[in-house]
Each structure stands twice: as C-alpha cells, then as structure tokens.
Design brief:
The chain is an alpha/beta fold. 28% of the residues lie in helices and 16% in strands. It has a 13-stranded mixed sheet with strand order 1-13-12-11-2-3-4-5-6-7-10-9-8. Bound molecules: S-adenosylmethionine.
C-alpha cells in the first residue's frame, strides 16, 4: 500500500544575475547533451487514478491539487515556450495530469502552433471523441494515447476509475479520423497486473497503422510503491511478442528517440519499447519539463525544480528568462536512470502528474 505523502515541490535557486548571459551559441549541459524536447504539464489533475501513477489512496478527496492562480496561464505557457524554442527546442509535448481536462486546450495549441516546433499531446483518450477535431484544426501534429490493457477488468482495475476500454478505443478512432495517424499507444507493463496482455495487445494493434509502445514501470514520484520485481524488462516484452510474431530491430527515427523500434518481419507495422529502467537512455536525454505551476525540471526523477513562474510574474524581460533557462540547462548533470538503485527509488521525487509524463 503506498504511503500517504503530501507532494513535495521544493525549488532550487534559479541561477541569479551573476550567471553568465546566454551568448547565443548552441546549448549543451555538463554531459554535452543539447536541449531539444520540452514537456509541459498543463494540469496536475486527472480523471483516472492509475495505480502506478496517481494511486487513489494518495490522490483522494483530501488531496490538495494546485489552485487556479498557482498554475501558468496559456499566455505564460506560450511566452515560455517561445523562449524555449529560441534556445533550440524542436518538440513540445503537452501532458499532465490529463491535459484534456484543462479547459479550452485547443486555444493553447493554437497559440503554440506558430512557434513551428513539433507539437504533440499525451492523453488518456477519455475525452478525445469530443476534442480530436478541434485539436487538429488548432495545429496539433501528433497524439499519444495511453491504454494499458484491452481486457476490460484489467483496464478498469489499472485506471481505478472504472473507465471502459471501448471509450478509449473510440477516442483513438476519433484521433485517426481527425488525421492523427499513426496514433502512438502507450502501455505501461507491470508484472502480474497486465503482462498477460502483452501479446494480445500486439496482436490487436498489428496492421492497424498505429504504433504500440511498451513502457517499463518506473519509480517516478514517491507514491506508487515501485519495486524492481514489478518491472517487466523490455527485452522480455520483445521476446514474448517475437515468439508469436517475428520482429527485427528498426533504426531510430532521430538521435535521442526514447523508444527503441522493432518492426514485424511480415510487414504488419512496428512496436516501440521504452526501457528507462533496464536500459537507461540518460546519455541522450534532451528533455526539459515545465510543471503545471511553472517550475522547470531537468529530469523526470528530479527532487527539485527551478521556479520560472516567480521570474515571469516579477516582470522579468524575455532576455532574463532566457538567460536563466540557459544557465539551468548548462549546469544540468542528471542521469538518474543510470544510477537507480532500490535506495534511490525511495527518494522523495516529484509526482509525474505534477511534472508531466
Ligand atoms: N494523462 C495522460 C495519459 O494518461 O497519457 C498524460 C500524463 S501520463 C503521466 C503520461 C504517461 O506516463 C502515460 O502513458 C502513463 O501511462 C505514463 N506513466 C505514468 N506513471 C508511470 C510509471 N510509474 N511508469 C511508467 N509510465 C508511467
């Protein structure tokens, strides 16, 4: 049973005025990694209570979600996103919490689209039927939908909101009809919970034109009761599927791609595996995360963020904000997944719903 904890959101100091000004040259952190990918959490709320992410015991009726005035407005998000793009970000992912719970999200998409970055969204799909067409029209490029099982009982138990599979499938259908093809489908695999569904899911999505991706269960946050024993290594996922439908490795689409690609030998499409636990990809990590309340995190497993909202709301000019972000990136040395142990898993890390998945 996960421990009841109040989420911690400690702040690290933003490098102050003494930090070197951003000189316009390509940004690299202490390990030589460029900054390319920005994930923005637009809400810390979700209508699901996935047991591995927002366990109901913790995120219950007493849980204090962020009040409206604490979260970044669309104007603030768009301003920051523009600064990030100026610093080299090429891809922006809107996430959460459940991003489609944020009212009027297509308006934010419309504000971000002119920046020219690859604009993507991760959603649980529960309201996509309603929103897919408007998101497309607003300029969203791609959608990833999370769906952990096609088996009704397993899925309802995992989302812990009694949400049916069929509605998520309808959402994926709506996304496809709106022109978001291929849709990526994320399946977090937890031993003894949904691993019996791995081959069934592969069978279902083969030949659909969509791309199923298996994610190793991770020790994000400090409330999901993570244990290494619950992780099904991606190598096992690939082996199990390959026994049913032969696979061969496929080239990465670009440097730093999170998922490793495997294609079906019979031409029925591809799968991806995301192996943050068993094959850490910190070496190529080019991601920055902006939390719902405007804190900047340089790692999904971070314990501290950098408070950009205070800077924004103190009237700082774009140049000053840009210098601060550049300084944070240049000092970045995170490589959590390379040094993970049972002990680090117990550290008080920020929750994924807050920092953005
Ligand atoms: N609500 C949206 C959704 O369901 O996709 C976006 C936010 S969610 C935090 C983003 C992704 O993180 C989902 O695919 C979810 O399954 C994954 N995720 C959450 N907790 C995880 C964990 N402990 N290990 C691996 N993946 C996790």
């Amino acid at each position: 049973m996960p421990q009841k904890v109040i989420s911690i959101r400690p702040q690290a100091r933003i490098p102050g005025p003494k930090a070197p000004r951003y000189d316009g040259t390509a940004l690299a952190d202490t390990r030589g990694r460029p900054m390319r990918d920005l994930r923005i959490s637009v809400t810390d709320r979700c209508n699901f209570r996935c047991t591995y992410c927002m366990p109901r015991e913790v995120f219950d009726a007493d849980y204090k979600f962020l009040p409206h005035e604490a979260i970044l407005s669309f104007e603030e998000i768009a301003r920051l996103a523009g600064i990030f793009v100026g610093l080299g970000v090429q891809k922006i992912r809107l996430t959460g919490g459940e991003p489609l719970l944020r009212r009027d999200l297509p308006r934010l998409v419309e504000m971000l689209a002119p920046l020219g970055a690859d604009l993507t969204l991760t959603t649980n799909g529960s309201t996509l039927v309603k929103h897919a067409a408007a998101l497309k029209e607003a300029g969203l490029n791609r959608i990833t939908v999370s769906l952990d099982s096609l088996d009704e009982a397993t899925f309802r138990a995992m989302n812990d909101a009694d949400f049916p599979v069929a509605k998520v499938l309808d959402g994926i259908g709506a996304a496809a009809n709106a022109g978001f093809t291929p849709v990526k489908i994320n399946m977090v695999v937890k031993r003894g919970v949904n691993d019996h569904q791995i081959v069934d899911a592969a069978r279902y999505w083969r030949d659909s034109g969509h791309i199923l991706r298996f994610i190793e269960f991770m020790d994000v946050g400090s409330t999901n009761g993570w244990r290494m024993d619950d992780v099904i290594p991606s190598a096992e996922v690939v082996r199990r599927i390959g026994e049913a439908f032969p696979l061969e490795p496929a080239e990465a689409n670009y440097a730093g791609e999170v998922a490793q690609r495997w294609r079906y030998r019979d031409g029925a499409g591809e799968i991806g595996v995301i192996s943050s636990v068993t094959q850490a990809f910190c070496r190529d990590c080019n991601r920055m995360r902006l939390s719902t309340e405007g804190s900047l995190y340089t790692c999904l497993f971070a314990q501290q963020g950098h408070d950009l909202k205070a800077l924004l709301r103190s009237g700082a000019a774009d140049d000053a904000i840009r210098d601060a972000i550049a300084a944070v990136w240049r000092l970045r040395d995170d490589r959590y997944s390379e040094i993970r142990t049972a002990d680090t898993a117990k550290l008080r890390k920020v929750e994924m719903s807050y920092i953005g998945g």
